[in-house]
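Researcher: Quick sanity check before group meeting.
Model: Go ahead. Protein one:
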Amino acid sequence: MNHTRHLFMSGAAAALLLIIAPLGAETSPSVDRAAALAAAQAGNWAQAEPALAALAAAEPADVEACTVLAQHKLDAKESKEAVRLLERATEAQPNRAALHALLGQALGQRIGEVTFIQQGLMSGKLRRAFARALELEPNNLTGLIGLAYYHLNAPAIAGGSNQKAIEYAARVAAVEPFNGALLQGDISARREEWAEAARHYRTALGFQPAHGWLQVKLGDALRGAGQNPEARQAYEAALLLSPELPAALEGIKRLAAVKE
């Protein structure tokens, strides 16, 4: 199921998806919990990590320690450990939508690192994590976006569906217009409906214009629609925002090749 390797967007877009509120602890093992959390917040992971690991391993698990440490593991590209921590957190507090949504994100990162057979098994867990988040909180933005991209990228045999992706994208747009327009653009681009994709990307840029990577998406859509002068303008706008952005330079290179 190699389609699932690209289940999520780039890090820049994916970073928009989730804000986890502080989650209360249920236990206080013989470590200084407050000091551990303060050290984590300060970025002092040499002090924070062993203490948080002890809290996370306690019975019952300290949910906030699990969450904070899992986020650190995701940032460090240690997704396997992040998944384990978040599974403990969701077992300890199964009715928190944010925990299930973050577990879905962790599984989305992990799925690109495992074998083909493991991907098939993991994709179901990923979909269930996002679905559970929506059961608990129907407008959970991370859950909506996660399921939209799941259905966009997963093959039909794994439950993927363009129509469901479109439906989730509409729900995202109702909650948060920027991410909704971005999703709708990606869905249109996947269907090679280039003019429609460009329209959605322009809408997204209207909400957040300072994204070079989004200007590249617009440029790619315009190039697909045969609007090469407008595509060049989008790539050049991307370079103004992010000089030497490789995708923008590649887009301009492809436009130049068309002229030759």
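Researcher: Fine. The other one?
Model: Protein two, sequence then structure:
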Amino acid sequence: MKEKIYIIIVTYNGMRWLEECLSTTKPYPVVVIDNNSTDDTVHFIEQHYPELILLKQHENLGFGKSNNIGIKYALEQDCHGVFLLNQDAYLEPDTISNLYDFYVANQEYGLLSPIHLDGSGKRLDRNFSHYLEYDHNHNFYSDALLRDVEGCYDVPFVNAAAWFLPRKSLEDIGGFDPIFHHYGEDDNYCQRLIYHKRKIGVLAKTWVRHDREYKIKNNLSLTPTDYFKKSEHIFKKVWADISKETSEKEVHYPLQRQFLKTILFFLRGKFSVAKKQLKLYKFQKKWLKEVLISKSINRKNGAHYI
């Protein structure tokens, strides 16, 4: 094997997919970071895959921080790059080698992804299909309908279920920003790549199956905790984006708007809503401090967070 690529998998109660996922990782070295699973995940790995590097955590660190642990380990082993693989995703035999070979000939890319199919392998993964729509890449669907899907399709974002990150990206851009716990960290990483003039590509005729049809969405109202988590995700995704020019004054606008909204609800006598908006305002003040620090770090080259 000419390429020294480490597969990094973050697990949390992953027994539903783990046997098939791990069976597709040979012959690459694998680092599993387990986020304190309560099912049989850890025991299964220890019994059936004792050769894997298993880094057991005592709490759920979230997606980004856990991957950073695996990335740091791989860099210490002098890897040529890493492949981040979801616990609910399955590789094809030539997926990683195709991506690595393309990168060697096209080193302007900071991130490469295979095409994501659904769990059956018979259709495009629904969410993944949005990343290749016409506004993001003019050629993919035209090629699929009129010619042949071939080459590499440049996109501004692809989700981190199956990422090849070359060593140079890890050394120059770093790992995931820890201000994101779960969701938003891959958006932020792509924004940083774009800022530092690195391309993001989806490679044709290279596949991964992402078995996530089990994630059924519902229309139930968000719980208060979910509401604030979603608000945090959106706030940080937008305002920590260094790929877009924003002044420090502009970054403070949402905080000012939120304060005025809170006052307005109090004046209208809607006290329960006002209290909720006041709590959001206090959260936004905290998030803004994190965003400003994040932007100052991420504008510089370096192996940040790993």
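Researcher: One line on it for the slide.
Model: The chain is about 45% helix and 20% strand.
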